[in-house]
Amino acid sequence: MKHHRIVVGLSGGVDSAVTAHLLKKQGHEVVGIFMKNWEDDDDSEFCSSNIDFVDAAAVADVVGIEIEHVNFAADYKDRVFAEFLREYQAGRTPNPDILCNAEIKFKSFLDHALHVGAEKIATGHYARVRLNQTTGLHELLKGLDNSKDQSYFLHRLNQSQLSKTLFPVGELLKTQVRQIAEEIGLPNAKKKDSTGICFIGERPFRDFLNRYISKEPGPIKDETGRTIGKHVGLSFYTLGQRQGLGIGGIKAKGAQRGGGEHTPWFVARKDMAKNILWVVQGHDHPWLLSPQLEAADASWCSGSQPMAGLYAAKTRYRQADAHCALTSPNAAEFALAFDESQWAVTPGQSAVLYDGEVCLGGGVINSAVTLS
Predict the structure, then answer these.
(1) What is the CATH number of the domain that holds 335?
(2) What is the mean pLDDT of the chain?
(3) Could you tell me if 59 and 116 lie in one domain?
(4) Owning domain of residue 245
(5) Per-residue DSSP letters for 36-78?
(6) Rounded distance, CA 32 to CA 142, Å?
């Protein structure tokens, strides 16, 4: 095996820690970098990178590598957070983790790593990269642990980025990663997996958005057009949302499609022009089911747009692959028609395409056709 100088993104979590250990064990020259991507209220109880850096430094000490603290907060605010706010203000629901990977972890971080002499970078993502010997292209594959696969979040990486990236824990199950961490005495072996977006942390999401997006209250209406409540601003809701609507005690008028009078309400549509939040009763209401979608801002990590045909896709993380037909694909846009209608397909989220275990790329959902 050829040995490389590899820079590992150490987050303070167990996955990146085991990544560094595995590469060091293979004989590579390994250097750790801790990325600071957020500075606003960083000393709060919800989002403190200081604690994570202490954990990352402790890991570096055990593994026996140097660690550097690098601040990418300005890049993050310009290239990820600004877009995040623009999307929410437009009534869409973006996925900033996908943009962060494309713009920060595999662009700003990769550029810095190459500047300090790295040949490769590595992160603790559950995914894999394989060189196709026939085409000469790098393929992004699902992680072997289906319950932890993160290829969905990595679909915007390009061929150049994939060629310089390693995902060692993508070959392992999460239980194996935890076991390795305990065996070598990593201080964060039992550290809980992080959840949520880094700049929001565990705080209530609406409280966070309140600081950046102005409220414009309006009516909440059911499918009959009856006003049954008041929303605080369309930006604060997402399709399929059940909690926080403030209409739990309202009973449906007449026979509602999808459920009886005690069935929960769900956000089904947002009319930005009229500032109306439309809700329906029942998880399987036709307004929540989409047999087709259109996506834009496509990014094909496979190296080129795939041909029209039958594939599988995810319209949100942590869902099973859905069989679909890809139609009218080009470099920027595509459409998908599903064998079975998908639930709460949400503009702003990503539709990611797969051919078996190979992630081909995806795009940002623009619109979806509902059953009625």
Answers:
(1) 2.40.30.10
(2) 91
(3) yes
(4) 214-284
(5) E---TTTTSSS--HHHHHHHHHHHHHHHT-EEEEEE-HHHHII
(6) 25
- pLDDT per residue as tens digits for the range 118-141: 999 999 999 999 999 999 999 999
CATH code, domain carrying 234: 2.30.30.280
Above 50 in pLDDT, residue 255? no
Q: Which residues contact 229 (CB under 8 A, 6 or more apart)?
A: 219, 220, 245, 246, 247, 250
Which pTM was predicted? Answer: 0.91
Q: How far apart are CA 312 and CA 74, in angstroms?
A: 37
pLDDT, one tens digit per residue, over 31-77 is 999 998 887 755 555 556 778 899 999 999 999 999 999 999 999 99
SS3 190: coil
Let me know if 259 is exposed, middle or buried by CB neighbors in 10 A (0-12, 13-18, 19+).
Answer: middle
Residue 149's SS3 state is coil
Tokens linked to 168: 């060692």
Interatomic CA distance for residues 169 and 19, integer angstroms: 6
Write the CATH number for 17. Answer: 3.40.50.620
Number of folded domains in the chain? 3
> Given this model, what pLDDT does residue 200 score?
64
CA distances from 61 to 35, 65, 187 (A): 17, 6, 10
For residues 122 and 9, the answer to whether their CB atoms sit within 8 Å is: yes
Q: How far is CA 245 from CA 114, 235, 274, in A?
A: 48, 13, 18
Cα separation, 170 vs 168, in Å, equals: 5
pLDDT of residue 339: 97
Catalytic residues: 100, 198
Pairing of strands 66-71, 29-36: parallel
- Has residue 345 been placed in a domain? yes
The DSSP call for residue 347 is B
Rounded to a whole number, what is the largest CA-CA distance in the chain?
70
